[in-house]
């Protein structure tokens, strides 16, 4: 007897009445009056890096944390039935080190099982551009001041040194000659310092280069100086070449890496990490592609008291430090139309360099 074929059909899931929210580019979260998540659109999944299926039915605090700055505002919207917009909100995601900077509008809605609509807009890029502009203005003013000061100091130093040499030739007492030698040595030291302060104004010699060649060169130099150091390489080898001055970039990365090595007292761990960054604004110009280079150490972190001034000349968190290394590094990177940022906490300090990749490359 022939068996009869009976086709089986899987029942089609009933579409969510809120599926149309997935067409929005902003992140939208719907909650009920108990602040339980009822729906997250695709934008919310991307923004928070989560799965909507996993978080649907959980309390909003599981997404935003118990200390969310939105807490009182949500109660207010529920009780008074009016909208609220919060600016520059800092949201620490529960169980993750990541912090999001957001604007959020909360609106009351009338839909089955849903009472509030939360719309989130990330403002990290906007904050970074604003911060970069302010920093650029401050640093440009500082550099001009330092440059003018260095010129004013450099010229009389030559006269002081020459006079000390002439005086030394007229002296017969060896003890007095020691004093003139001290004057000459200190004049030489100050001239070297002035030369370093003016170093970032040197003419660039741009050419195509591979950033990993620069990093490998720096790695060899740092390991020669700090043999007890561990340097981890986390490279994206698919990155294209950039156009830059090889010597300047080596000096910039070396200054940062040497600072990191000194921070871990030559016995810790440094990571060189490269990645591609897309749609980045650098020096007020939008770039489709940029190179992200990070130097990460596991040292004690930058003291909070100097964190905001760490790139200023003559500012150092280390006894005996000249306070010029990071300032020079920033000057070199800015000559390449790039930028440096730093994020530091005990156990992890990360310097991030962003360098534009030319469309032609």
UniProtKB/TrEMBL annotation:
Gene3D superfamilies xref list: 1.10.287.130, Histidine kinase-like ATPase, C-terminal domain (3.30.565.10), PAS domain (3.30.450.20)
Database matches in CDD domains: HisKA
InterPro entries membership: HATPase_C_sf, HATPase_dom, His_kinase_dom, HisK_dim/P_dom, HisK_dim/P_sf, PAS-like_dom_sf, PAS_4, Sig_transdc_His_kin-like_C
MF annotations from Gene Ontology: ATP binding; phosphorelay sensor kinase activity
SMART domains to which the protein is assigned, alphabetical: HATPase_c, HisKA
One Pfam family named in its UniProt record: HisKA
Catalyzed reactions per annotation: ATP + protein L-histidine = ADP + protein N-phospho-L-histidine
SUPFAM superfamilies assigned to the protein according to its UniProt record, in alphabetical order: ATPase domain of HSP90 chaperone/DNA topoisomerase II/histidine kinase (SSF55874), Homodimeric domain of signal transducing histidine kinase (SSF47384), PYP-like sensor domain (PAS domain) (SSF55785)
EC number: 2.7.13.3
Principal EC category: transferase
Entry keyword annotation includes Aminoacyl-tRNA synthetase: no
UniProt keyword terms in alphabetical order: ATP-binding, Kinase, Nucleotide-binding, Phosphoprotein, Transferase, Two-component regulatory system
Annotated ranges, domain Histidine kinase: 148-359
NCBIfam families linked: PRK11073.1 (NF008293)
Official protein name in the record: histidine kinase
């Amino acid at each position: 007897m022939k068996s009869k074929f009976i086709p089986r059909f899987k029942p089609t899931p009933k579409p969510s009445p809120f599926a149309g929210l997935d067409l929005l580019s902003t992140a939208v979260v719907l909650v009920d009056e108990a602040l339980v998540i009822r729906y997250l659109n695709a934008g919310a999944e991307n923004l928070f890096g989560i799965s909507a299926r996993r978080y649907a039915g959980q309390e909003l605090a599981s997404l935003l944390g118990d200390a969310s700055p939105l807490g009182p505002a949500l109660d207010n919207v529920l009780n008074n039935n009016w909208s609220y917009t919060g600016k520059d909100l800092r949201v620490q995601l529960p169980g993750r080190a990541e912090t999001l900077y957001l604007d959020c509008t909360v609106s009351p809605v009338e839909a089955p099982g849903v009472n509030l609509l939360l719309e989130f807009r990330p403002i990290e890029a906007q904050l970074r551009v604003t911060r970069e502009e302010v920093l650029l203005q401050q640093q440009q003013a500082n550099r001009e001041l330092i440059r003018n000061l260095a010129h004013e100091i450099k010229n009389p130093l030559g006269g002081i040194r020459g006079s000390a040499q002439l005086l030394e030739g007229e002296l017969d007492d060896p003890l007095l000659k020691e004093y003139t030698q001290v004057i000459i040595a200190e004049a030489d030291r100050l001239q070297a310092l002035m030369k370093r302060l003016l170093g970032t104004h040197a003419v660039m010699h741009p050419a195509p280069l591979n950033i990993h060649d620069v990093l490998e060169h720096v790695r060899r130099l740092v390991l020669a100086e700090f043999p007890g150091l561990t340097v981890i390489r986390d490279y994206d080898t698919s990155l294209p070449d950039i156009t830059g001055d090889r010597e300047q970039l080596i000096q910039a990365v070396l200054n940062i890496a040497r600072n990191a090595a000194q921070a871990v007292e030559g016995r810790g761990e440094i990571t060189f990490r490269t990645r591609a960054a897309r749609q980045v604004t650098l020096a007020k110009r939008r770039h489709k592609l940029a190179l992200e280079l990070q130097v990460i150490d596991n040292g004690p972190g930058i003291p909070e008291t100097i964190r905001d001034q760490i790139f200023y000349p003559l500012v150092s968190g280390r006894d005996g430090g000249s306070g010029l290394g990071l300032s020079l590094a920033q000057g070199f990177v800015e000559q390449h139309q790039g930028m440096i940022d730093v994020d530091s906490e005990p156990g992890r300090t990360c310097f991030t360099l962003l360098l534009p990749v030319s469309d032609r490359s």
